[in-house]
Design goal:
The structure holds two protein chains of two kinds. Chain A is an alpha/beta fold. Helices cover about 25% and strands about 25% of the residues of chain A. Chain A has 13 helices and 18 strands. The radius of gyration of chain A is 21 Å and the shape is globular. Classes of the chains: A alpha/beta, B alpha/beta. At the A-B interface, helix 6 of A face helix 4 of B.
């Protein structure tokens, strides 16, 4: 662990969604605490052209501990810090699953990042018996999920939601009807038809979303729908919010910026005309669950981020070794890494005029943090927890520069916008470039 | 024979799909295939591929496609190795990429790949230096079958321009149908697909493709009819199919007089087509098989850069 940060950042654009700040000014940190001014000889950092915001919080991270190989808490935390994240929420679909208080306590934080734990909602993630949610909450779990699958039936979902209502913690639901989605490998649609790949119907997601919204309203529990990938699901959330229900949701960077055309070899963002390329078609690195969205839905999700219906951008960072990806598309393990490219994909949407920067920052920092009860903000007196990035610098995504132990992303080789210069978590420098 | 003399170079390193080939390129393959038919009969070009080692990697059972590729490669003088994958270490867990890289190191120069996963040939093309020919991938493409079909129809009609070809059956699970949609469409034909709703699902969004929902609608005015094998292993009910979709003499009266019938084989006679039709004068099923070898000779020669 490095020592407490002390510096003054001069003339950066300060964006702090916690109080609506968006101004060019100096920001001073002394001994890990944000202060009004610095009189002594602390390090002076030129901030012109840089942006400083509260540290990012990822609600959906696969650290592959215990049991992993493709990532560790240590490598995943370094990837997080390099991506501007100061908190990651470790998902419980590990081997064995994080389904007990001792398993939750076993997920120590590495120095590079706070690691919060999402506990498994059911024992062994088997979807038949609720786990001991209260005991895991006592051990520090900040939410519960059987991520990788939905809680399979409404009875059990209701039981879990009733327990969580008492604890005040959210069910973080991977919404997917296993029967409707069975056998599918990419989003249903004309591209899947032409590629001869089994299509995943949007109804697989929205049917569970509707079920859970109903159950959450009935039980008074908090429901957080993760990695939404369809416009229909987003509409359901929008309606629930309009009714004043306690529903939140996140989308991943890849579901707003990438599309199902990437499976056909396109490498154009959702707001650009797709350009399929035979030599890049069927890349197993484009296989993810839920699958990459249709262009129409990706743009609807992005619009949902822009209008605030989407609470958070969460990465679903899912490391896999090359041998799980260098296989025919339908055999590839679903998932791609995202911690180090989330900001860049968001900035690409900002550059394209689809999103404004303060909204992006809020979706990466203060709003997800609030869902797990973390405070974020750059006011004087607060512990420094922030990221400084250059929004106009570009970098090339190469395995050699990634801090993650894995490199399974179709963005490899592409040049992206946005370079993190400094990450400070809990008053300490966790990343610097 | 003048094949190979002053020919333009072939722009594609691999043969993964018909999609993306221009009409000129397709016509060139078919023209070359016509030459190859004659060359084969005359035992010409027997050393054309003498520098090539062609590997047959069939991850799915196949008789006619595998045999016709083997005959095509041998007719042009290639060394042919059949991996016999069903009985090799491949089924003991070796990955596709590892297997192909081993072949590459062993001196194989071209691989003819049949695989149950859509896009497997694309993976092979991306991860090895082998030239890859797709001999059928999942439900995606079977480009050389479509070439044989296109040649068969071109032989019958002279040109496909303006002709309507109906493809009847389980289009959704058919790589033959997908490749024919591309090939016939690029050659100027109108393609109509037809079958029960689940078998044509999604094809209404395919540019230029008509979807018919009854056999009558499918056949009416068709210049040629291609029927696909009913895949009984997918749980199709033969009785239902026979009642609603089987091609017989009476239904064929809706098509243009003497409209030819094609079938990629193997046929379930009496299920998707009556035995009389399959073996009758309209049937070009035998011609499709005969054209399999010359179109594959043409593809091999073009990829090897010798035609």
């Amino acid at each position: 662990m490095t020592q407490a940060a002390s510096f003054i950042l001069v003339g950066a654009r300060v964006i702090d969604p916690s109080d609506g700040t968006d101004a060019v000014r100096d920001l001073a940190v002394r001994e890990g605490v944000i202060v009004d001014a610095l009189s002594d000889g602390a390090e002076r950092m030129e901030g012109h052209g840089l942006v400083v915001t509260p540290g990012f919080c990822d609600l959906h991270t696969h650290l592959r501990e215990p049991g992993g190989g493709a990532e560790t808490i240590e490598s995943g935390s370094r990837a997080a810090a390099r991506g501007g994240f100061t908190t990651v929420c470790a998902m419980p679909n590990t081997d064995p699953p994080l389904d007990s208080p001792s398993a939750v306590r076993g997920m120590r934080s590495d120095g590079s990042c706070r690691v919060r734990v999402i506990g498994a909602a059911t024992l062994g993630r088997r979807g038949d018996v609720a786990a001991d949610l209260a005991a895991m909450a006592d051990a520090g779990a900040v939410g519960f999920s059987d991520d990788g699958a939905s809680i399979p039936n409404a009875d059990l979902t209701g039981e879990i939601l009733r327990a969580l209502a008492k604890l005040g913690l959210p069910l973080i639901e991977h919404a997917e009807d296993a029967v409707l989605a069975d056998g599918s490998v990419m989003r249903a649609g004309s591209i899947a038809t032409q590629l001869g790949l089994a299509g995943w119907p949007p109804e697989a997601e929205v049917s569970i979303v509707e079920r859970d919204i109903g159950l959450a309203a009935e039980t008074g529990a908090r429901l957080h729908l993760t990695h939404l990938s369809t416009a229909a699901s987003l509409e359901a959330v929008r309606r629930a919010k309009a009714r004043g229900e306690r529903v939140t949701c996140d989308v991943t960077p890849h579901h707003i910026a990438l599309t199902d055309a990437w499976v056909a070899g396109s490498r154009r963002f959702s707001w650009e005309e797709p350009e399929p390329r035979e030599e890049l078609a069927y890349d197993g690195r484009c296989r993810v669950n839920p699958p990459l969205a249709s262009r129409e839905d990706a743009l609807a999700l992005l619009a949902g981020v822009a209008d605030g219906t989407v609470d958070a951008i969460a990465t679903d960072h899912a490391p896999h070794p090359p041998e799980r990806k260098l296989v025919p598309f339908d055999e590839a393990a679903p998932g791609l890494i995202g911690l180090e490219t989330a900001l860049s994909l968001g900035l690409a949407a900002v550059e394209a005029g689809r999103l404004d920067l303060p909204t992006l920052v809020a979706a990466l920092s203060t709003r997800p943090a609030a869902i797990i009860g973390e405070q974020r903000g750059l006011r004087a007196g607060a512990r420094a927890d922030l990221v400084v990035f250059d929004p106009s610098a570009r970098w090339r995504v190469e395995a050699s520069v990634l801090a993650s132990a894995s490199a399974n992303t179709p963005l490899l080789g592409m040049e992206l916008l946005g370079v993190v210069r400094l990450t400070v978590a809990d008053g300490r420098v966790t990343y610097r470039s | 024979m003048t094949v190979g003399v002053a020919a333009a170079t072939w722009a594609h390193r691999h043969f993964l799909d018909v999609e993306g080939l221009s009409r000129e390129e397709l016509e060139r393959i078919l023209d070359l295939a016509v030459d190859m038919r004659e060359a084969r009969a005359a035992r010409a070009h027997q050393s054309m591929l003498e520098n090539e080692i062609v590997g047959l990697a069939f991850y799915e059972a196949s008789t006619r496609t595998r045999v016709s590729f083997e005959l095509a490669a041998k007719a042009l003088g290639a060394t042919v190795v059949d991996l016999g994958i069903a009985g090799s270490s491949v089924n003991k867990g070796e990955s596709l990429v590892d297997t192909l890289r081993t072949l590459e190191r062993s001196g194989v120069t071209m691989i003819i790949l049949r695989h149950g996963s859509s896009g497997a040939p694309h993976l092979a093309a991306r991860t090895t230096r082998l030239r890859v020919i797709n001999a059928g991938d999942g439900t995606h493409a079977h480009p050389t079958q479509a070439l044989a079909d296109a040649l068969t129809l071109r032989d019958a009609f002279g040109s496909l321009a303006g002709r309507t070809v109906a493809i009847v059956g389980d289009v959704a699970h058919s790589r033959v149908a997908r490749s024919n949609i591309h090939a016939l469409g690029t050659l100027g034909a109108r393609v109509r697909v037809a079958g029960p709703p689940a078998w044509v699902e999604g094809f209404d969004a395919w540019p230029g493709v008509e979807v018919a929902t009854t056999v009558e609608e499918a056949l009416r005015g068709a210049d040629a009819v291609m029927t696909l094998r009913v895949q009984l292993e997918r749980g199709a009910q033969p009785a239902n199919h026979i009642a609603a979709w089987r091609l017989d003499e009476e239904r064929m009266r809706l098509a243009r007089p003497d409209a030819p019938i094609l079938h990629p084989g193997p046929t379930n006679e009496g299920v998707e087509i009556t035995a009389d039709l399959a073996n009758g004068l309209r049937s070009l099923i035998g011609r499709q098989v005969e054209n399999g070898v010359p179109v594959r000779m043409a593809v091999l020669a073009l990829l090897a850069g010798v035609a």
